[in-house]
């Protein structure tokens, strides 16, 4: 009777890696030749080198806000990625919904705080309070409704009014691509890419129902946000080191000036002392 090889089951404490949230390379853009953001095919070599240093950077969670008209599918794409589920009868978001997703990028933990804001005008003043300090703005529109694309610039301008110190990463995302025919899809994409170029955003077409490009989009978003956060962290460390070096140099100059004066004073005292004898 042949012996069967038994593979031991992993212990309960062992967790398998989630391929959706473990990134070792920078994901490509939806249309790399038209992206105003990074067109590199991978993380920069200098960035990888810095991340391998013994002192690991501690990064804050990345704040991502989703803006757009009501019922364009903001909640649907977030739930598709976070929970891999889709419901056709989502209720309109009241105020703001919040989701947290953890990534492991090049061996470093990185979190996305996803703020799903309401698209109704009566909740705009409430949602606006959550626009501040955004690292990423996702402007969402319904590919089956042209007027929701026309509103994209208005939503972006409103969000940027609360983020004037630094410009966040901007994405223009078309949802419900599964509702269009091939001809309608191509026509709407051409219009949307024109808008994306005007607002300097990276364009994506998604479908929460089928899951089309949803995972790829969030991986791309997390990869670019991580790269930006690391670069800003390194720049802060560089500026701090330069400030410390300048302060040390100024202290050294003051110390040398003080010692020099004491030196001449001591010489003068000795000369007067010699003459008195």
Automatic annotation (TrEMBL):
<dbReference type="GO" id="GO:0045202">
    <property type="term" value="C:synapse"/>
</dbReference>
<comment type="function">
    <text>The small GTPases Rab are key regulators of intracellular membrane trafficking, from the formation of transport vesicles to their fusion with membranes. Rabs cycle between an inactive GDP-bound form and an active GTP-bound form that is able to recruit to membranes different sets of downstream effectors directly responsible for vesicle formation, movement, tethering and fusion.</text>
</comment>
<keyword id="KW-0378">Hydrolase</keyword>
<keyword id="KW-0449">Lipoprotein</keyword>
<keyword id="KW-0813">Transport</keyword>
<keyword id="KW-0547">Nucleotide-binding</keyword>
<keyword id="KW-0636">Prenylation</keyword>
<dbReference type="GO" id="GO:0015031">
    <property type="term" value="P:protein transport"/>
</dbReference>
<dbReference type="InterPro" id="IPR001806">
    <property type="entry name" value="Small_GTPase"/>
</dbReference>
<keyword id="KW-0472">Membrane</keyword>
<dbReference type="Pfam" id="PF00071">
    <property type="entry name" value="Ras"/>
</dbReference>
<dbReference type="GO" id="GO:0000139">
    <property type="term" value="C:Golgi membrane"/>
</dbReference>
<dbReference type="GO" id="GO:0003925">
    <property type="term" value="F:G protein activity"/>
</dbReference>
<keyword id="KW-0653">Protein transport</keyword>
<keyword id="KW-0333">Golgi apparatus</keyword>
<dbReference type="InterPro" id="IPR027417">
    <property type="entry name" value="P-loop_NTPase"/>
</dbReference>
<dbReference type="InterPro" id="IPR050227">
    <property type="entry name" value="Rab"/>
</dbReference>
<comment type="similarity">
    <text>Belongs to the small GTPase superfamily. Rab family.</text>
</comment>
<protein>
    <recommendedName>
        <fullName>Ras-related protein Rab-36</fullName>
        <ecNumber>3.6.5.2</ecNumber>
    </recommendedName>
</protein>
<keyword id="KW-0479">Metal-binding</keyword>
<dbReference type="InterPro" id="IPR005225">
    <property type="entry name" value="Small_GTP-bd"/>
</dbReference>
<dbReference type="GO" id="GO:0005525">
    <property type="term" value="F:GTP binding"/>
</dbReference>
<keyword id="KW-0460">Magnesium</keyword>
<dbReference type="GO" id="GO:0046872">
    <property type="term" value="F:metal ion binding"/>
</dbReference>
<keyword id="KW-0342">GTP-binding</keyword>
